[in-house]
């Protein structure tokens, strides 16, 4: 399970990850990763009072994916997959995983393959490669 302190909850955090982060699309999902680090807005892996902030993740599974039972199954699978990988992300980073309609029919291993592929591409790409 994804720890509570590792979950995105605020709309502003989702918006920051989607608007300012880098994006990689795969057949089953789209991953947005925001690590900060620009000169105008430096990365701050510390919260108020100097507390260390872990990487945080959020999920978007729209009604286009399917009925509520299917959406919840996809969300549970994605949460589990991200929980296994969140430790490898930079501290203070924000990640949003958006499931595409094809994720409804996908197997767990297919979701894992697409997520790993997207994270590899995001970690290999430079900050100037935004919007790929």
Verbal overview:
- The protein has 132 residues and is α+β, with helices and mostly antiparallel strands.
- The protein has a single domain (4-33, 54-125), classed as Ribosomal Protein S5, domain 2 (2-Layer Sandwich).
- It is built from three helices and four strands.
- The protein has helices at 11-20, 68-85, 108-124; strands at residues 22-25, 29-34, 56-60, 94-99.
- Helix 2 crosses helix 3.
- The longest helix is centred in the middle third of the chain and has 18 residues, at 68-85.
- It is globular.
- Mean pLDDT is 86; it is low at 37-43 and 128-132.
Keyphrases for this structure?
132 residues, alpha+beta, Ribosomal Protein S5, domain 2, four-stranded mixed β-sheet, 34% helix, 16% strand, globular
Estimate the strand proportion: 15-25%
Number of strands: 4
Named CATH architecture: 2-Layer Sandwich
Number of helices: 3
Largest sheet, if any? 4 strands, mixed
* Head-to-tail CA distance between termini: 30 Å
Secondary-structure element sequence? HEEEHEH
Rounded to an integer in angstroms, the radius of gyration calculated over CA atoms is: 14 Å
As residue ranges, the low-confidence spans are 37-43, 128-132
Structural class: alpha+beta
- Taking strands numbered 1, 2, ... along the chain, how are they ordered across the largest sheet? 1-2-4-3
- CATH class equals Alpha Beta
Number of domains: 1
User: What's the rounded overall pLDDT mean?
Assistant: 86
Give the fraction of residues assigned to helices.
25-40%
What is the fold-level CATH name, i.e. the topology? Ribosomal Protein S5, domain 2
3D shape: globular
Subunit structure: Consists of a catalytic RNA component (M1 or rnpB) and a protein subunit.
Keywords: Endonuclease, Hydrolase, Nuclease, RNA-binding, tRNA processing
Enzyme class: hydrolase
EC number: 3.1.26.5
């Amino acid at each position: 399970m994804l720890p509570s302190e590792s979950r995105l909850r605020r709309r502003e955090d989702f918006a920051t990850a989607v608007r300012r982060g880098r994006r990689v699309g795969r057949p089953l999902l789209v991953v947005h990763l925001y690590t900060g680090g620009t000169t105008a807005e430096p990365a701050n892996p510390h919260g108020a009072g100097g507390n260390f902030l872990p990487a945080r993740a959020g999920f978007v599974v729209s009604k286009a994916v399917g009925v509520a039972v299917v959406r919840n199954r996809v969300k549970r699978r994605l949460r589990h997959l991200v929980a296994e990988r969140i430790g490898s992300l930079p501290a203070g980073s924000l990640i949003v995983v958006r499931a595409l309609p094809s994720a409804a029919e996908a197997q767990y291993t297919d979701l894992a393959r697409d997520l790993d592929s997207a994270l590899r591409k995001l970690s290999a790409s430079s900050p100037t490669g935004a919007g790929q």
